[in-house]
Amino acid sequence: MANVPDNLHYSKDHEWVRVDGDTAVIGITDHAQEQLGDVVYVELPKPGEEFAAHDSFGSVESVKAVSEIFTPISGKVVEVNQSLADEPEKVNKDPYGEGWMIKTKMGKPGEVDSLLTAAEYEDFTKAESE
Amino acid sequence: MTAPALELRKTSLNNVHRAMGGRMVEFGGWDMPVQYPAGTMTEHLRTRTHAGLFDVSHMGEIDVRGADAIPFVNRLVSNDATKLIDGQAQYSALTTPEGTVIDDLLVYRLASDHLLLIVNAGTTDKDWDWINSHYQNENVELRNVSAEYCQIALQGPDAISILQKLTDVPLAEIKYYYFRDTQVDGVASIVSRTGYTGEDGFEVYAAPDKAEQLWKKILDAGNFGSDEGVLPCGLAARNTLRLEAGMCLYGHEIDENTTLLEANLGWITKLNKGDFIGRDALAKQKEAGIRRKLIGFEVTDRGIARDGQDVFLNGQRGGSVTSGSPAPFLKKNIGMAYVPVESANVGQRIEIDVRGKLVGAEIVPLPFYKRAK
Predict the structure, then answer these.
(1) What's the mean per-residue pLDDT of chain B?
(2) What is the CATH number of the domain that holds B161?
(3) Do A63 and B23 touch (CB under 8 A)?
(4) Which one, A27, A34, B152, B359, has the greatest CB density within 10 A?
C-alpha cells in the first residue's frame, strides 16, 4: 500500500505539497513513483521561473516512459533539488523526503486549500485503480 | 453499446506472473509482465552479474518436416540452413523480394528432415501466412506449433550452474547456438544455448503445462530471494539487455522497410548459397553500396533518446532513432539509429530531437556491451 502522509496536500496528478511558511515544497507521491518504476532522469526548472497552478514544471523519466510533472499551486521557484541529477532514484526511495523536487514561493497561499487531503487522495487513487 | 475490449493472449505463466507481483502490459497482443517488484534496473543488473529468468512463451514456433524441409526453408531465409548439423541453430531472417525483413528468427535443425523455426510473438501469424503462401508442392509438412511450447530463458553468468542442478546433460558441453533434446527436472525439454541478453545462458522449450513447474524449480535452484539469486525479469529489462548487447528488435531496427545490409546483418546474408527471396535485390544493393546504415550512439549531453526521435547531423534532419533507452549496466543513455552512410562513422557527433530540444550524442561501436569470455 502506497504511503500517504497526513501533513501534506495532494493533487489529482499525483504531486504533493508541504507548506513551510510562505514556501511550498513539491514532489511526486509514493503512488506515482510506484506506477513509474525506476526513475532514471528528472528534468527540473531553474530558480526564478514562475508557474501558474497546473502548469508543467518538468518531467520524470522511467526506463520505459516520460511523464510530465505539474505544479498544484502557483509560485516562483526558489530552489531545485540538484541532487536528483546524479541520484534520480531518490524519487523512488524517499519521494516525500530526499526525493523533493522544487521549492516555490507561493503566489496565492490560499490555493493549497483547494487541494486534496491525505484521505481524499487515498480515496482518489483507490477509485482510479478500479 | 461499447465494443468489447480485445482479449489479450496469455502464456501458461500468466497467473504466476501476477502472483509474483508482475506489472502486466500488452505486448504484441499478449498480456505480459513489464517488470516485477524488484524493478527494471535491478532485474537488468542481476542478469549481468548473476541470473535473470524470462518467460518468452509468447514467441512462436513453426515446425517444418519432410524430405524437402531444408531446401524449402533455405529458399525463404537469408542464412544458409544447409550448413546446420543436427542439434545446431542459426540466427536468420525471412526476407521480402526487396531484401527487407519479414521477421528475424532462429532456425533449429532437429534432423535432416525436421526444422523448428522460432519467430517473434507479434509476427507469428504473419510469418505463418508468408511461409505457407510460398509453398510450391515441396515434400514438407508445415505446422504452427506455437501452442505446443512454453519457452523460458535463464540468462547470466550463473545460468549454467543453476540449470545444471535440474538436468543430467553436462551443460558446458552444449556449445553456443547448439541445443539438446533432454529433460529438465524430469520434464522433456529442448535446452538451447541461446539468448537475447548478451550473457551466457539457455532457452528451455517444453510443453506449456510444465511451464509453472520449470519456472518455480529454476527460481528455487537459483536462490530467488537472496541478494545474489536469480530474479524474474520483465519485458523492460529484456529490452534494455538486448539493446546494450546491440541486438535488433523487430519493428525497430528491422522491418519491411529496412534491408539486411542496412541493418548490419550482412553476416546472416549468404548471397552465395543459392537463390532465396530477396537475394537479387540484396546482391544489387551490395554492389551499389547501402545509402543508410544502422549505428549505435551514446548520448553525451543530459537526456535520454527515445524510439522514433529525429537524428540531426550538422543541423539537418538525417535519420531516426530505432531504439533509445538508458543502459543500466553501462550507466549511459544509448540508442540505435539509421543515418546516411557517409555519416555512419564511430566518433561522428549527432544530435537527437528529444521532445523539442537538441541533445548531443556520439556514434560508438556496436555492440555497446560485450560480456567477458
Answers:
(1) 97
(2) 3.30.1360.120
(3) no
(4) A27
**CATH number where B108 lies:** 3.30.70.1400
Per-domain boundaries in chain A: 9-107
pLDDT in the model for residue A109: 83
Q: What is the domain extent for residue B301?
A: 291-364
Cell of B345: 562513422
Determine the Cα–Cα distance for residues B143 and B63; give it in Å rounded to an integer: 5
Flag whether B369 is in a domain. Answer: no
Asked whether residue B287 carries a pLDDT value surpassing 70, the answer given is yes
Nearest in space to A80 (alpha carbons), one of A50, A100, A61: A100
- Residue from the list A41, A63, A92 with its beta carbon closest to the beta carbon of B236: A63
Indicate yes or no: CB of A66 within 8 angstroms of CB of B23. Answer: no
Instruction: Kindly determine whether residue B23 and residue A37, on different chains, have CB atoms separated by under 8 Å.
Output: yes
In eight-state DSSP terms, residue B148 is G
* pTM for the whole structure: 0.94
CATH of the domain at B355: 2.40.30.110
Q: Cβ separation of A40 and B306 shorter than 8 Å? A: no
Give me the residues paired with residue A87 across strands.
Answer: none
Q: What is the ipTM of this complex?
A: 0.89
For residues B65 and B206, what is the distance between their CA atoms, to the nearest angstrom? 19
| Residue A130, pLDDT above cutoff 90 | no
Does domain A9-107 correspond to CATH entry 2.40.50.100?
yes
Q: Where among B129, B144, B159 does a domain terminate?
A: B144
Do B124 and B172 lie in one domain? The reply is no
Mean local confidence (pLDDT), A11-16: 97
Q: Is A38 close to B39, i.e. CB distance below 8 A? A: yes
List CB contacts (< 8 A) between B236 and chain A: 37, 63-64
What residue type is B35 in one-letter code?
Q
Q: Do A66 and B240 touch (CB under 8 A)?
A: no
Q: How far is A97 from chain B (nearest CA, A)?
A: 21
pLDDT in tens, B303-342: 999 999 999 999 999 999 999 999 999 999 999 999 999 9
As to burial, measured by CB atoms within 10 angstroms (0-12 exposed, 13-18 middle, 19+ buried), residue B257 is exposed
Give A37→chain B minimum CA distance, Å. 6
Counted domains in chain B: 3
Same domain? For B176 and B221 the reply is yes
Strands B231-232 and B52-55: parallel
pLDDT digits (tens, 9 = 90+) for B73-114: 999 999 999 999 999 999 999 999 999 999 999 999 999 999
